[in-house]
Amino acid sequence: MTLQPDISLGVVIPAFGHPKFLAEAIVSACEQETEHSVHVVVVDDGCRFQETADTVRALMNTYPGKLFYVRQENTRLPGARNTGIRFLLNLEPEMDAIFFLDADNRLSPASLHMFWQTLVKKPDKAWAYPDINFFGLTAAQEGFETRETAREYSKLKHLVSNISEAGSMVRTSVFHAGVFFDETMTSGFEDWEFWLAALDAGFEGVHTPHAGFMYRVRPESMLSESQREVDGLVQKIRTKHKKLYAPANILRWEHEEAPVFAVYVTDDDSILLTSDLAADGEVLSLPDFKRRFHEWAASYHEHFFPTHLMVMPATVLALLKQQHAFLRWFMWNMRECENIKQCVSLRSSTDIDLDFLAFGHEDLDAIADIFCVQTSLLWERAYGQSPDKRMERSPYWATLSLPFQDDELSGAQNSRLDASLEAVFEELADQLLPIPERATHTSKLFSGPHVQTVREILVPEICAVDGRQPFPAGTCAERTLVVVNAKLLASFNAHKKVMDILRSLHGDPHEIILLIEDMDNTSLAHDVRTQLSNLVSAIVPLSVPKNDLGYAMYLGGQFEKKLGTDNFNDATIVARTCNKIISLGVTSGIEIFGDARRYGTKGYVLLEPEFDCDKSHDIHKLMAYEHAVVAVVSESMTQRNRLVSYGFPNEKFDGMAVLHEGDVS
Questions:
Q1: Which residue, 191, 294, 357, 427, is most buried by CB atoms nearer than 10 A?
Q2: From CA 55, how far away is CA 58, in angstroms rounded?
């Protein structure tokens, strides 16, 4: 086979304690059937067996100019791989990609060719990972078995479990970007940490099917040992890569890879996949959605599929998007709804409210414009299951009250279908069936993380709290959460000041999430809502019951606590998706500063004369939460001096510029 010297591939083989298998690994790497040049380096990581060095030197005579040998003091596996990487990059500065082969594993003759062709076809991907062909100590009757981790690369899955075997081909651009193995990861999971470091640097992987990578199973493997320390290793990985595990990152990737909602638009039979209607989502035709459903129904543990299916006419979808300021709040409420079937009626009202009514109760004066059903019912229908006759149960009803225009609602009413939306769902469900039969192989297994486990570990644990659901965050924009009391928006002077502040923060791609406390007790004028909608990406009403919690004492003074368990959770779930929180005056938002800071969200308090912040209990509340406040912004020396006299650190006062800091996660 004629060599093509323009492409150079390398193989790193760390060696420590496996002279019996080492020759097989070396020969399999050096005998690759490829037209590209291949250089193989064996890194003897202080092996105590003389056979290791003898084996390599003997084979160097067989593969002169292709096989190289480096011996060093023992550094463990990550250090040995790094030595091999640097050796090959020094040997061939223009090398294109490097493969990692452990001394007890081996390659099939065309493996490097298969891996490289995958990267050629996917120039935007940085590494190619295989299915794993196990041999050695296996239970398979044929003596080997093949395990798949992820046919399609998934960032969400990779955050939960290592879906990329160390035996993968990596573009050298990853190393030139400074990504190497962490040499402190000596107890295992060093390859998982390496892939996450690459992901953290902006790189992604791609699956290579039928690559012929052979993994030898031994009872004393490092993987077996690492399971004893798994909790500590996982925590170390999460701490090092905390930006990857930030709620905003996870929710954006959920929107891209595992959207929660499938929105079936009845007018054109299109399906929008989304977790956040304020962000762009994937649009499928009905046949494509049917194929996606069949994949999920046949391998529900492997494929992500929306948990909820919404049915609505295009006019209603457009109507919701016109109310963009309340769109995420509505989607959040629908995601939190645990009803198997849910109908939602639209109403025009000055009050902002999503009222979930009793089971089976329909508001006869409104029109059910949205039907939502849990997609588990589709799976149950596909396999003839219907526990507790859930398919036959009547839906729950809810009324969505937003400042719609009457003529807009009238237009939506005029476009209503002859059949009910529930009947449209039933027709859609019939079109998705039957599920085609699929052949399986007893020696081919799926060993990646169960998608339900991925959802349960990442979303409720990191992005929400106490079994709640996260606030939608499908864009990559930076977010600022601004907390304001509704009474300020109803006061002329304070309202003008609030608008000036929002204008100073406004700007693409920056998003402002406005949390309005006491909104249920104060009506907002139409022009105020219009102004707010033009300046913010989302408005979240926060109910604060009057004096339900009473007062707390701090430093001999009392202050009002506004947040109980439920509304505290509401506020903190929204805050976790934001880079910073700004409390306009002394609001309930200050009470969530501490929790939000654990997720990299910084809290600021803006004191202005218009916000009436001179009350004694406000001073005591600021003092009580001082530890979680990054800075207080105030132009009033009187306020500053008063706070300092109570013991508030003078260093925590700053000018308006602090509110325009960049990414503070």
A1: 191
A2: 5
Task: Work out the burial of residue 522: count CB atoms within 10 Å of its CB; fewer than 13 is exposed, 13-18 middle, 19 or more buried.
Answer: middle
Give the domain 4-240 fold: Spore Coat Polysaccharide Biosynthesis Protein SpsA; Chain A (3.90.550)
End-to-end CA distance of the chain: 52
Q: Which residues pair with 559 in a beta bridge?
A: 552
Write out the residue limits of the CATH 3.90.550.10 domain(s) in the chain: 4-240
Is the pLDDT at 498 greater than 90? The verdict is yes
What fold, for 479-660?
Rossmann fold (3.40.50)
Torsion angle of the four alpha carbons 400, 403, 407, 408, in this order, in degrees rounded to the nearest 10: -60
* E-only strand ranges, 269-315: 270-274, 282-285, 308-312
Looking up tokens 């998608």, which residue turns up?
A: 451
Q: How many CA atoms lie within 13 A of 616 on its CB side?
A: 7
Chain segment 506-534, per-residue pLDDT in tens: 876 789 999 999 887 677 777 888 899 99
Prediction pTM value: 0.91
For residue 586, count CB atoms less than 10 angstroms from its CB and return exposed for 0-12, middle for 13-18, buried for 19 or more: buried
Which one-letter DSSP state was computed for residue 507?
B
Q: How far is CA 358 from CA 343, 363, 388, 477, in A?
A: 12, 10, 19, 38
- Let me know: does 26 contact 40? Beta carbons within 8 Å: yes
**What local confidence, expressed as pLDDT, does residue 188 receive?**
87
Phi, psi (degrees; rounded to nearest 5) at 469:
-110, 155
Per-residue pLDDT at 462: 93
> In the numeric block, which tokens belong to residue 253?
């990737």
Tell whether omega for the bond before 509 is within 30 degrees of 0, i.e. cis.
yes
Residues of CATH 3.40.50.2000 domain(s) within the chain? 479-660
pLDDT at 442 over 70: no
Which tokens in the block code for residue 227?
């399971």
Question: How would you classify the pairing of strands 169-171 and 538-542?
Answer: unpaired
